[in-house]
Design brief:
The chain has helices at about 1-5, 30-35, 40-55, 60-70, 75-90, 90-105, 110-120, 125-140, 145-155, 160-175, 180-190, 195-205, 210-225, 230-240, 245-255. By secondary structure, the chain is mainly α. This is Tetratricopeptide repeat protein.
Length: about 260
């Protein structure tokens, strides 16, 4: 049950984490004015591309990143940002090419290692993903995703002590991010530490009640305790949030 719930999903595509993403849909018009006044400024296109990416307007984002790269072919941030949009569009080959270009230009760019690692994890290439997260950590990254996602790989390998250490580091870097709490709770549960598991999972839900994985993990704790009615309620809530989330459906099947 723990293996099924822990790491079968890759999480949402991280468009909201596009590097240099300062814009949202609300200020795209102001960014357009910046570009109108600075038509040869690659950073202006990169920033607006990031805003389009946040808004899910991938084709417009690609056009802006293409323009930024045309102006400055060594703009490694734009390559990494464009790669993230390609991931969102499901074009992992193009994403890989762009991450590789970014890292050739700047081999110390931790964001590109993390992004490429997430792409590898999405594709099921966990060893390659692990190596990229490790590379970012070796560069002393302060991005919590590197630790959280390396922790997920430790978790799938059954190395829960190491996973807990990584999730704890991710939490220290971003205390308001819910997923590392939920993930750490699952590893505590795997170690038989129900009390800490329940505390972490409930903390994740306090921070964000829309995460199906956290509701499933809460269900697992209740199920382990034999509180099947409560477990069923948690699994059902997860299934309402994400009707295609298999661990939620499997949990409901077990306790119904």
């Amino acid at each position: 049950m723990l293996a099924a719930a822990g790491c079968t999903t890759t999480g949402p595509v991280e468009v909201i984490s596009i590097d240099e993403a300062q814009g949202t849909q609300e200020n795209i018009s102001s960014l357009t004015n910046v570009i109108r006044n600075n038509p040869n400024d690659p950073k202006a296109y990169n920033t607006r591309g990031s805003a389009y990416g946040r808004a899910g307007e991938f084709n417009k984002a690609l056009a802006d990143f293409n323009k930024a790269i045309a102006i400055d072919p060594n703009y490694y941030q734009a390559y990494a940002n464009r790669a993230l949009v390609y991931r969102g569009m499901g074009d992992l080959s193009a994403a890989s090419n762009d991450y590789n270009k970014a890292l050739r230009i700047n081999p110390r760019y931790d964001v590109a290692y993390i992004g490429r690692g997430n792409m590898y994890r999405q594709a099921g290439q966990t060893n390659n993903a692990f190596n990229d997260f490790q590379a970012a950590i070796n560069l002393d990254t302060t991005d919590p995703r590197a630790y959280n996602n390396r922790g997920l790989i430790y978790q799938t390998r059954g190395q829960h002590k190491l996973a807990i250490e990584d999730f704890s580091t991710a939490i220290s870097l971003s205390p308001s991010a819910p997923l590392p709490y939920s993930n750490r709770g699952l590893s505590y549960l795997a170690q038989g530490d129900d009390e800490n598991a329940f505390a972490d999972i409930n903390k994740a839900l306090d921070l964000d009640k829309t995460i199906a994985e956290a509701w499933v993990n809460q269900g697992l704790v209740y199920e382990k305790r034999g509180e099947l009615t409560k477990a069923k309620r948690s699994y059902a809530h997860a299934a309402r949030l994400d009707p295609d989330y298999k661990p939620a459906k499997d949990g409901l099947a077990r306790v119904s």
